[in-house]
Amino acid sequence: MSLALAPPPADATLRALSAGFAARAALHDRDASFPHENIAELRQAGVLALTVPRRWGGHGGGLAEAAEAAGLVAEGCASTALVLLMQLTQQAGFLGNLRVAEALRARVAQDAVRSGALLNALRVEPELGSPSRGGLPQTIIRRQPDGGWRLDGRKIYSTGAPGLSWMLVWARDDAESPRVGLVLVPAAAAGVRIVESWDHLGMRATGSHDVVFEDVALPADYAADLRPPAEWGAPEATQASWNAAGLGALYSGIARAARDWTARFLRERVPTGLGAPLATLPRMQEKLGEVEALLASNARLVASLAADHDAGRPAAPAEANALKSVLVENAIRAVETAAQLAGNHALSRANPMERHLRDVLCGRVHVPTAEAAHVAAGRALLQSR
After folding, report:
1. Is the pTM of this model over 0.70?
2. pLDDT value at position 97?
3. Torsion angle, CA of 199/112/67/254, rounded to 10 degrees?
4. Which domains does the chain have, with CATH numbers?
5. Residue-averaged pLDDT of the chain
6. Angle of helix 317-342 relative to helix 282-310, nearest 10 degrees?
């Protein structure tokens, strides 16, 4: 039986929420404090169930709706937007693509609908780094006599850790030929501990702390999707499109916020030597036009990627990964260009531009990096001719 849920939140609702997030963003950034109140407002508005299928009471939204939501929220608070994007992306993957028992899917989905329970994947480790580079995780699950599991390990860069209800943990089993995959872990389980290690240049309010697992007991079916390592090697088109369009939309949202602040500054700033607003200078108009061109390009790319994916025609992984790099670099260039127009004012902590600069640079660290994406695209081209 499906659960009743209000219609998906309109853009006007998301814009109103984002404006409230913007008013608190500087404080959360300065303190590196997790924006619990922002998440609560997204929960109340039903945004955290946006990509839950309708059969479980969700909105049934696709990549286009998720990207739009992430971009609008990022205009107010980039850290909140990243937590939201991870929620929507992992919902789509866990509920749609992983080899998970139906009852387990239903539980996670209905938790999101009823209480806005947050879900994210925890993959990166101190020694392993990103799993995208290969190698077996040190986080391990051991089969118990009763058929259940015990989990031990440590994850870093665990976005949203203080607010998570469910964690999808990348781990290996203790077999002679280990299988690797995602293990579903309740965040409140005994033996789960957050180490508040996150102190970053940008995205400071994401709560991306270390999470330690010490002899965590799990039911048999919570080892959601274990496979031989080779089966995880090939890039997956759906995941690549979600990554490219979602991150592209989020970092474009940051760039729009930077553009809007700069446009206001140029209209309001009247140097005594000029006697008119800076916005009247052709040079300022030209450079802000460059920003507009970059953002317009990103909007078209995100819309195309998302529409093709939602229509069942996802981009090839090499193409999507290359476009992720283009989208992020366009957003960074847009923010840097906008900041140059305001000079020292852009670097003052009294203004939000310096936060936008720091936040947008974090786009480069999401996998795949530009180097990895370009190598893959070049290799695919050379091997096809």
Report:
1. yes
2. 67
3. -30
4. 11-117 (1.10.540.10), 122-232 (2.40.110.10), 237-384 (1.20.140.10)
5. 93
6. 160
